[in-house]
Amino acid sequence: MIRFENVTKVHDPRAKPALDSVSVEIEGGEFVFLVGASGSGKSTFLKMIYREDVATSGSVYVAGHNVSTLTSWRVPKLRRKIGVVFQDFRILPQKNVYQNVAFAMQVIGASRARTKERVTDVLAMVGLEGMEKRMQHELSGGEQQRVAIARAVVNQPDILLADEPTGNLDPTTSEEITEVLKKINANGTTVVMATHDDDIVDRMRRRVIELSRGKVMRDEAKATYTSLIPKVTPATGTTGEAQA
Ligand SMILES: Nc1ncnc2c1ncn2[C@@H]1O[C@H](COP(=O)(O)OP(=O)(O)OP(=O)(O)O)[C@@H](O)[C@H]1O
């Protein structure tokens, strides 16, 4: 579904690359956490997938497209296969809940009947039934994120990218939002979530890709936020402390 082949991204030639020779493959239907310190390259990794950023070298393949060589007029076709949610929700303040989600279907020319049916289903799925008429200022942070998620998945994308979706939310709300993402993944959508939330990662036990200064330093199935695999000390062969 997503393949990075030796991907390097240089924003500023005087600084270290934001991504440095990254090779990773994510299969359809996976749920993957992207972790790493601030500035380690998580957002850049996600931006490569929806082609907000283009690799300086190497190739990125997404849902059958070679994103690195995609001409700009083909980008909308790629983006239809991808939903994206952000830490700061980014819902449209002049539209109500229903209109925020319906808008994503209107722009691809869906009929009014189909839009009504699908938006109603998706709002129920994210737990916003009965809140269709509410405006942004009448919603909690968690509810705003539910709207953003509903909008991101209403056109049934193959992939959902989430860039610190719980970064502005309290722990209970963060867990509820993660449950929504889990449900979307259980329906077959590949989910890639960048996060600093160790509690969520530790509870979910999914694949964890850890970046450090633009490099993949860990790629582990059913993993925790901090690796539990003990480091082998080369000189003595004894085990040391778990990696930070
Ligand atoms: N448009 C840009 N121009 C210049 N440098 C950039 C740009 N975008 C990102 N960078 C740099 O690339 C590196 C990786 O940034 P990125 O935003 O991908 O990190 P991150 O892991 O998502 O961080 P955070 O957890 O703080 O969101 C950082 O050093 C950042 O300063």
TrEMBL record:
<dbReference type="InterPro" id="IPR015854">
    <property type="entry name" value="ABC_transpr_LolD-like"/>
</dbReference>
<keyword id="KW-0472">Membrane</keyword>
<dbReference type="GO" id="GO:0005524">
    <property type="term" value="F:ATP binding"/>
</dbReference>
<keyword id="KW-0131">Cell cycle</keyword>
<comment type="function">
    <text>Part of the ABC transporter FtsEX involved in cellular division.</text>
</comment>
<dbReference type="InterPro" id="IPR027417">
    <property type="entry name" value="P-loop_NTPase"/>
</dbReference>
<protein>
    <recommendedName>
        <fullName>Cell division ATP-binding protein FtsE</fullName>
    </recommendedName>
</protein>
<dbReference type="Pfam" id="PF00005">
    <property type="entry name" value="ABC_tran"/>
</dbReference>
<dbReference type="GO" id="GO:0051301">
    <property type="term" value="P:cell division"/>
</dbReference>
<comment type="similarity">
    <text>Belongs to the ABC transporter superfamily.</text>
</comment>
<keyword id="KW-0132">Cell division</keyword>
<comment type="subunit">
    <text>Homodimer. Forms a membrane-associated complex with FtsX.</text>
</comment>
<dbReference type="InterPro" id="IPR003439">
    <property type="entry name" value="ABC_transporter-like_ATP-bd"/>
</dbReference>
<keyword id="KW-1003">Cell membrane</keyword>
<keyword id="KW-0067">ATP-binding</keyword>
<dbReference type="InterPro" id="IPR003593">
    <property type="entry name" value="AAA+_ATPase"/>
</dbReference>
<dbReference type="InterPro" id="IPR017871">
    <property type="entry name" value="ABC_transporter-like_CS"/>
</dbReference>
<dbReference type="InterPro" id="IPR005286">
    <property type="entry name" value="Cell_div_FtsE"/>
</dbReference>
<keyword id="KW-0547">Nucleotide-binding</keyword>
<feature type="domain" description="ABC transporter">
    <location>
        <begin position="2"/>
        <end position="238"/>
    </location>
</feature>
